[in-house]
Protein: TRAM domain-containing protein
Amino acid sequence: MRAGDLVTVDLEVLTPEGDGLSESTGTSVHVPGVYPGERAEVRVEHVSRQTPRAHARLRTLLQAHPARVAPPCPHSDAGIAPRRGACSGCPLQALDLAAQRELKRAALVRRHGLDPGPLVAGPDAWGYRWSSKRIITGTSGHVLVGSYHRGSHAPAAMNDCRVDHPSIAAAARELQAAASALAIVPYDEATGSGDLRYAWFKTDGRDVLLTLITAASPSPAAELLPAALKLPAGVAWSVQAGRGNAVRGEPPVQLRGRPVLSVSLAGVPVEVGPLGFLQPNPRVAELAYRDLVADEAGAPHRGKLAFDLYAGAGVTTALLRREFAEVVPCEVYPESAAALGVPAEPAEVFLARQQAEGRHPELVVANPPRGGMGPAVCAALVRQAAPRLQIMSCSADALVRDLATLQAGGYVLRRLRAYDTLPHTPHLELVAWLSHGTGDD
Ligand SMILES: C[S@@+](CC[C@H](N)C(=O)[O-])C[C@H]1O[C@@H](n2cnc3c(N)ncnc32)[C@H](O)[C@@H]1O
Structure:
């Protein structure tokens, strides 16, 4: 296979990016806009020199998935060849929801040999996202509050994004109009010049908190926008002067209105500040949280001591405290650690300290970020050898890597469940139940 070839492929499995993947020709061919179960004529764009792997572009859809639908979002390039300037955030939206969920489940089985059973879903197919980080691009006078197209830094419009909560979509529209009218200068990552870099919107289902992230201080955006924006209940500001993609920068400054939102998750009220983590889809995440603190049959764990690693806003800490005499959270981000009343420290440092103090929990719960826990934390957990370990993960690849270390260290996987936290995207949240030794309590 060579770049430029026209080939016909049958797509068999969904990739983590939401592409269709064909493996039957001996070369893995990735094709955006085509779904497993479909046949397409594609143009090969790139063939890897190291591995039998190619990227191709859809030319003609020869056989369509029976569950194809017209994608509702006009900005999306779901179900077609990628379009420059289009939003690539919801690549599955050209399929009905049942078919999306079946493709996500089937991909876990095929890629990792893990079958979570039918996906757990929430009530909302659209408007479910309560936390939305937008990238500011465009030019002075024509500011875009959008995103980057996948795999590039080409700006993509997200006006009236269908998956954002309607109050966030409205606040983003207002910011785009106000920043354009006030001639706010978008940050230019090529030159490092400009002012406004990111806008992070969060909602409690009614009010919106907006955090403006600018490249420097003083900032015209931070000076002018708070008075011009009527929709957010609170506006905060943080400076991120680094050249990378990190959104969180210097400690936030409150510019006007409310500094925190109170969001109820699984019946636990959580305070979320300007740079604090909020699950993008709290209504589905809370189903996973309830499972994460119970055993695999749904019965509550009880005991003397539990650790809650990557505790964030503290939902699982609060749930565990209903059943355990003592629950110790661990969190590295200072704002969240302070709210939890613990020192900000990474999980491996926390575990080493607990081990040195001879503290042995009956249950460890962990909800790490996308990269997973990693070898150092998994090795510390193996040394700790708590009878029960339960992990929530937003990356199947990272979870599978962590499971390999934990299983080699004596842990047994008892059950896996998957949650459709971000419909129309390939993402899943997973909960894994593990036990050490005999597997009995
Ligand atoms: C996926 S979030 C889970 C948050 C939490 N379960 C909640 O509901 O708010 C991951 C959390 O881990 C924290 N974190 C990231 N790396 C960490 C590390 N090395 N050690 C401890 N916490 C970390 C992040 O700040 C974030 O709050």
Remarks:
- The first strand starts at residue 6 and ends at 10.
